[in-house]
Amino acid sequence: MKCKPFRFLFLVCLFIWVAIGIKGCSFYPSSRLKPFKVGMNTWPGYQIALYAQETGLFRQQGLDVEFVRFNNQQDNIRATMRGSQDASFVPLAEVMQVDPTEEKPVFVLVVNISYGSDGIAARPGINSVKDLKGKKVSTKLSTVSHLILLEALKANQMKPQDVEIVDVENERAIEMLKQNQISAAVLWEPTLADTAKSVGGRVIYTTADVDSLVIDGLTTRSSIMTTKQDELVRFIKVWFEVMEAVETKPQEVFSVVAKRTGTTPEQFAEDYKGLKKGDLVMNHWMFDDGRLNRTYQETYQLLSADLRHGRILRKDLELNAEPIIKATQNWQS
Which of 157, 191, 197, 305 is the most exposed place for a label (fewest CB within 10 A)? Predict the structure, then answer.
């Protein structure tokens, strides 16, 4: 007996649906996509997530992801804590300094660890961190660059008060270094090496010199863990798919992201290589082996030793691996 047209069409659609399901993909009509809003600034370790947006990986997980751009990381994490967005890509150290709120911040994913992307550029005659004693060094207080300086000083058996901090943003710091108004500046790539070269000096320290506390992650607020936990889990699942793509087809990933960010694949790859990527192995080590908690405690101690940042450090930050566990239970199954 011949199938009627609508029955034939139904069977074809059913076959396609089953085939997609077998391959582990999911198709969601636009009307069924769940919105999820994430804040980020211009940083390769965060921008790598644009690959998922450009290639439809978020849509395959039923998500309508919107990335909100910020110039200031405190504005970013405040927006999450006050309910304007669902999560933030933000350094752990800056989460610890966010303004007090009724809800507590929850750090749920390590996205990268700095490994050479951040450091200190110095003028001629300054050949090591120890040479900075009594000198003027630029850094932006209450930001991750302050932590970079404190970490460098500690690694060289120096106290925070051994240097005079000039509290300025990167752009102003570069100009001051060129005008010989300061001896060194905390910067990040690509301006770190370029600035040192332009003043005839050198990079005297990078985060590759230590087991760095400069950790970037995904942070949300406590209520999202219940009201939007499903979206959070799906987002993290896609993140690990992106990390796998970086490992298996980096040129494709860098090309897609570079096009979106207005740079070249080569430049983006160069900027990204100074980071340890936050893949599943990294997160297992950070959460399960207690490394993340130790980082939290060590960062707290460093920031407490130099209160020039003027902020009250939060003691209620929660480190929660539950979304990662749920995201990876059926990952690639």
Answer: 157
Which two tokens mark 162?
Answer: 């051994």
38 neighbors 89 (Cβ within 8 angstroms): yes
Q: Are strands 87-91 and 63-69 parallel, antiparallel or unpaired?
A: unpaired
Domains and CATH numbers, the chain: 24-112+214-329 (3.40.190.10), 118-209 (3.40.190.10)
What distance in Å separates the CA atoms of residue 140 and residue 100, rounded to the nearest whole number? 21
Structure confidence by residue, pLDDT tens digits, 163-222: 999 999 999 999 999 999 999 999 998 899 999 999 999 999 999 999 999 999 999 999
CA 96 – CA 53 distance, rounded (Å): 29
DSSP strands (E only) in 144-298: 164-167, 184-188, 202-206, 215-221, 275-277
The length of the chain in residues reads 333
Kindly report the number of other CB atoms within 10 A of residue 124's CB atom. Answer: 12
The helix (H) or strand (E) run that includes residue 319 is strand 318-319
CA distance 274 to 254: 14
Express each pLDDT in 257-311 by its tens digit.
Answer: 999 999 999 999 999 999 999 999 999 999 998 999 999 999 999 999 999 999 9
Contact call for residues 129 and 204 (beta carbons, < 8 A): yes
**Relative orientation angle of helices 291-304 and 144-155, to the nearest 10 degrees:** 90
By the 10 Å C-beta count (0-12 exposed, 13-18 middle, 19+ buried), 63 is classed as: buried
Rounded CA-CA distance 312/321 in Å is 25
> Cβ distance 188 to 270 under 8 Å?
no
Tokens of 10: 């139904």
* DSSP helix, strand, coil percent of the chain (3-state; round to 5): 50, 20, 30
In sign, the C-alpha dihedral spanning 221, 223, 229, 231 is negative
Which residue in 232, 323, 231 sits closest to 283, CA to CA?
323
